Amino acid sequence: MDVAAAVNLYPSHRTKIIHLVRHAQGFHNVAIDENWTAALSEDYFDARLTPLGWEQTDALRKHVRSSGFFKTIELVITSPMSRTIQTAVGAFGGEEHSDDLNVPPLMVEDAGDSNRPAISSLNCPPFLAIEDCRESIGITPCDRRRNISEYRPLYPAIDFSMIEHDEDVLWKPDVRETDDEMAARGLKFFKWLLTRKEKEIAVVSHSGILFNSMREFGNDCDVFIQSEIREYFANAELRSIVLIDRSRIGSDSSNNFPGGIPRGLDLPVDIAIKKNPEFQKRLKSLVK
Known about the structure:
The chain is of the alpha/beta class and about 290 residues long. It has helices at about 5, 25-35, 50-65, 70, 80-90, 150-155, 180-195, 205-215, 225-230, 270-275, 275-285; strands spanning about 15-20, 75-80, 125-130, 200-205, 240-245. This is Phosphoglycerate mutase-like protein 1.
């Protein structure tokens, strides 16, 4: 691979940093690992985090803070499923909430039988729930969400306003979204991210939608980099990517400085030479 093919340059204002996170371990993960038929059981409807899943979330929280990401992330987007919401608020939320704070908590105490204290919405990014980054849709109850009206009292500071329907009208008991359909939904989601004003965003999502979306990228990369992009996500794994706007989908303004203010005569030397044949002859006569 030559240098020109191996590198790319893009204006920085046409890029965003996206921190992709798969949710921590849910009860359905454990059950399906033991017996795949558990995926069809209503016992795991909208599965929540296991105690180990909360430990994984706590470890992710420590990493987010020690790495400095917590200070630079401007928005947290979560799939509207219990396991992703719990992972998102646990990893990116504020400290423990107290009743004397004059703001709603991100999560109330013991939300979803979590046996966890309430989490504050102070001193953390805003949280937004989006349908397009949820897991494969259809057939498996673990991937069917609850009514939004059930989530709101448990997670008061999360913005659910972009979800149109209270009930889960996307999930069907007899139709399963294909991998290609999931990939198309993921690409739609990434394009939408480019329209956001925020430059650095955390997205808490699921294995299937992340894998099928990411396999659409990296065809022009070295095989090692392809594997970095396309590998399946582990529970509570965070993978940071740079999202590039090649088609002016977004509207981010540039911080570039135009230079030469006030303007004067500033024709570049190489352009001046090309425009003036006599100058070219003179220059050639000086070259030995």
